[in-house]
Amino acid sequence: MKIWGSLLLLRLFFLIFTLNTLVSATDHIVGANKGWNPGINYTLWSNNQTFYVGDFISFRYQKNQYNVFQVNQTGYDNCTIEGAVGNWSSGKDFIFLNKTKRYYFICGTGGCFNGMKVSIVVHPLPSPPTASVANTHHHLSQKSAAQKVFRSSLLVSSGALMAVVSLASIWF
Fold first, then answer.
1. Number of folded domains in the chain?
2. Could you say which protein family the record assigns here (predicted)?
3. Which of 70, 104, 107, 138 is close enough to 116 for a disulfide, judged by CB 3.0 to 4.6 Å?
């Protein structure tokens, strides 16, 4: 019985850790309700987003008409897919942002020439607040502060969810 309890505790710890990691991610839908289409200013859209490692960027579009290629800066500047490091064509593409760097995405079916390209900068995860950070938090933008509060509330919610899931797994 002691082994059963230890295994259950280990499983609970693993599930909480996994959910905290997944729930804290943000999905940035390119173009918001306008999606991935020609004639949209994606530079304006990306400048109003803050991307962190662990977030997703997702593209929504007509799957038989457009696609998405991850390219380098030269491919982005010239609308070429030569040397692309990734390509997607499902119409609902979710791309995990796993590194702190600048990413470049273009449409490879010619849409790039009509504005279907976006460049984003992915930042490292913010450090947890400390007493000195709390005293200077007024320097943070309202958007950044709101995102941190949202992420924190998601982490708390995931803990509650994990408790329910764990209890259910014990009973079933």
1. 1
2. Belongs to the early nodulin-like (ENODL) family.
3. 107
SS3 helix, strand, coil % of the chain, rounded to 5?
A: 45, 20, 35
Q: What is the pLDDT of residues 18-75, one digit of tens each?
A: 444 445 799 999 999 999 999 999 999 999 999 999 999 999 999 999 999 999 999 9
The domain of 54 spans 27-123
Q: Is residue 78 part of a domain?
A: yes
Classify residue 132: in a domain, yes or no: no
Q: Which region, left, alpha or beta, applies to residue 79 given φ > 0 means left and ψ of -120 to 50 means alpha?
A: left
Given a cut of 50, is residue 171 above it in pLDDT? no
